[in-house]
Structure formats: structure tokens, C-alpha cells
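R.M. (postdoc): so does anyone remember the format we settled on? I'll just put the C-alpha cells first.
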């Protein structure tokens, strides 16, 4: 048991030993299979050593990624490291300019192959520097596909950073699936939104449908726990961030709107409940008159899960807890085939529903079940 108060036996970490495994640098399909990925931002140097190297890897994102990648590689030689190109955060894709290199903004300095070769100097895989694709901009989407399909190499991921609006309209979702299925390369699929792109029940259903109908390997990128729903429905891998702005792409030029500057305490993953809950929320709403959940992970070591406030140091501790908790949750999926993964997710989501009455009887009040859990459990 990892936590007191709530217990979902289906999310208990697997005790099986993981065989050492080389980094399959340059081979996208081999490297991505049977690993859990983490999206690492400001805390990348702290998080990398916590990741299970033989069963995981890291996408390094943000302006510090290129600065620290070699240092992180030296300190963690067995860990796959992939650097996210800036275009996914900074460029709007158009039909004439679906990609943007790292050179001068607005001008493509190198051809696409040369740009990807340059990425490979520090990254185990290359990623097409696709700009964000606005809702319904089919011309930009198809231009990106044509550019990526012209590449003849096995080390590249075709990045599709698409507006969450593509999930809100059935025709658009079908069009997106059709484009994914024409890709020669594994697809790195992320959605842009100022808050959670997959936060509604209808979008969660559309998201699942993409993975069920994709015939090309797809990575659920910059995901939250919906990455496990994707994994259970055919995703090659998922990449989950330790704090909210890493679990989505913020639209170009936007700043993300969900952060309340008065409350920067970390969101803590409670694996047994399959949800992230802000430390402050637990302290104020759940445990003002009852003992807190204690966490027995290697970061918390039996401390209260709601102990953390908004200082940088405390936020880092919370984010480290999340990295370890995601790996613990993934440990049960290692070496399972598609049917096994689907069955495990069904047991985990059913068990998560059971934790609500456990929590309610402990704190003496009702707690609303997360809508997304209802979708995942269906
Ligand atoms: Zn913990």
C-alpha cells in the first residue's frame, strides 16, 4: 500500500525486477515501446534521476532544455532523453510554413533533414518542429503530413500539436485520425488549450477514439492520467508532466490561465484515486478535521500528502512525488500486451471509484467523483 486512507489494490506498484535495457537511440519505435515517459520542465535536473531508466525516459521541454540536456545525460547515462523543439510552443503552423527551425524566427534556416540531424546531436530521437495547428486548419495539417512523410529516417517522431477544438467536433476528430493513419512515422500527439485540453467528458471520449482507431503508433504527449487511458486503448506510450502546464500545450502567445498566484502549492498524484489533487485543497477541504493521507513513496517517506505549500522547494518535492507515482502506476503495465493493458486499466478505474466511499467515510463528507474517471471506467 502506498497511501493510508484510500486503497486501490490494482494500482499497487509491481515488485517485478526490470531487466537492464540499452537506450535505443535513433530507433523511434524500439525506444518508445514498453516505457513510461515524463515531460520535464523547470525541475528537469531533479526529476531525471528519479525515472526508472530501463522502463522510462524524459522529454525535456522549455528554454532550459538545450542548456541542461548534456549535463543531464552525463549524470543519467542509461536514460532516454528527447528534447522538444521550440516550434511546438512558439509557432503557428500554416500551409506554407508548417514547421519552424530553431534558427531565426520566421525563417527556416536548415532544410528539415538537416534540422533533425542538428536535434540528434543532443537528443535520442528527432521531432518534426511542427507549429500548433488551429482548429479546422486542414491545409496546415496536411502540409505538415506531407513534409514529414518526405523524410526517410527511423529516428523521427511526427509532432502534431493540435488545438483541443479538434476533439470537440466529430468530423475534425475523424480527419485528424485519417491524417495520423497516413503518417510514415510514429506520431507525437499533443493538444493545446489554456487549461486542460481533455477536461470534458466528450473530449475524453474523442481522445480515446483516436487511439482506438489509429493504425500508426501514437504517443499521448503532454498528457495527464488520460495518458493511461490512451495506453489502454493502443497508444505506443504516454508522456506525462509533473505539473499542469506540462500536461498540455499552451496556445502560442498565451500564458495558461489555470494558475492562481495565491495558491502555488503542488498538485499531488494519488495513484489509488487516479487523480491529481492540490495540496492546499486536501488541507482545506478534505482534512481540516481528519488525519491526512500519508504517502510511503521514496520522496514522502510516510509524510502527510497535504503538507506542501507554494515555495519553489516545496513545489519541487511535490513534482518529484508525481514522477515516482507515475512510474509506480506504470510498473503494472510493463510487458503486458494490448489486451492485458486494457484489462488492467479497467480494474484500476473500477478500484479508483471504490476509493471515494473510503475517503468519504474517513472525512465524514461527500466527495464528488471526477467526471473523467467516469469516462475512463466506462
Ligand atoms: Zn509521495
Amino acid at each position: 500500500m502506498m497511501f493510508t486512507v484510500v486503497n486501490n489494490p490494482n494500482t499497487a506498484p509491481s515488485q517485478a525486477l526490470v531487466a537492464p535495457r540499452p537506450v535505443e537511440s535513433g530507433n523511434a519505435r524500439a525506444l518508445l515501446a514498453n516505457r513510461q515517459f515524463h515531460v520535464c520542465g523547470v525541475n528537469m535536473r531533479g526529476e531525471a534521476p528519479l525515472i526508472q531508466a530501463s522502463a522510462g525516459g524524459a522529454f525535456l521541454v522549455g528554454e532550459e532544455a538545450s542548456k541542461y540536456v548534456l549535463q543531464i545525460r552525463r549524470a543519467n547515462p542509461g536514460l532516454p532523453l528527447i528534447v522538444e523543439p521550440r516550434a511546438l510552443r512558439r509557432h503557428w503552423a500554416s500551409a506554407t510554413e508548417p514547421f519552424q527551425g530553431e534558427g531565426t524566427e520566421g525563417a527556416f534556416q536548415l532544410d528539415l533533414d538537416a534540422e533533425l540531424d542538428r536535434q540528434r546531436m543532443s537528443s535520442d530521437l528527432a521531432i518534426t518542429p511542427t507549429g500548433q495547428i488551429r482548429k479546422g486548419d486542414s491545409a496546415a495539417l496536411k502540409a505538415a503530413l506531407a513534409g514529414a512523410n518526405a523524410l526517410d529516417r527511423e529516428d523521427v517522431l511526427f509532432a502534431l500539436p493540435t488545438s483541443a477544438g479538434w476533439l470537440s467536433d466529430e468530423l475534425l476528430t475523424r480527419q485528424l485520425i485519417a491524417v495520423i493513419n497516413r503518417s510514415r512515422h510514429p506520431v507525437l500527439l499533443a493538444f493545446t488549450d489554456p487549461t486542460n485540453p481533455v477536461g470534458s467528458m466528450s473530449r475524453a471520449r474523442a481522445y480515446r477514439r483516436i487511439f482506438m482507431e489509429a493504425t500508426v503508433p501514437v504517443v499521448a504527449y503532454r498528457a495527464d492520467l488520460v495518458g493511461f487511458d490512451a495506453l489502454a486503448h493502443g497508444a505506443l506510450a504516454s508522456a506525462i508532466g509533473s505539473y499542469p502546464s506540462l500536461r498540455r500545450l499552451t496556445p502560442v502567445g498565451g500564458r495558461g490561465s489555470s494558475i492562481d498566484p495565491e495558491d502555488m502549492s503542488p498538485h499531488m498524484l494519488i495513484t489509488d484515486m487516479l487523480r491529481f489533487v492540490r495540496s492546499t485543497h486536501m488541507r482545506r477541504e478534505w482534512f481540516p478535521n481528519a488525519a491526512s493521507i500519508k504517502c510511503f513513496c521514496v520522496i514522502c517517506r510516510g509524510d502527510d500528502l497535504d503538507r506542501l505549500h507554494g515555495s519553489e522547494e516545496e513545489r519541487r518535492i511535490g513534482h518529484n512525488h508525481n514522477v515516482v507515482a507515475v512510474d509506480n502506476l506504470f510498473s503494472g503495465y510493463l510487458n503486458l500486451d494490448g489486451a492485458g493493458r486494457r484489462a488492467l486499466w479497467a480494474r484500476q478505474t473500477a478500484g479508483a471509484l471504490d476509493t471515494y466511499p473510503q475517503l468519504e467515510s474517513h472525512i465524514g463528507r461527500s466527495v464528488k467523483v471526477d467526471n473523467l474517471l467516469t469516462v475512463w471506467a466506462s
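R.M.: ...and that's the designed sequence above, right after the C-alpha cells. Also worth knowing: The mean pLDDT is 95. The pocket of zinc ion is lined by residues 295, 297, 299-300, 321 (CB under 6 Å).
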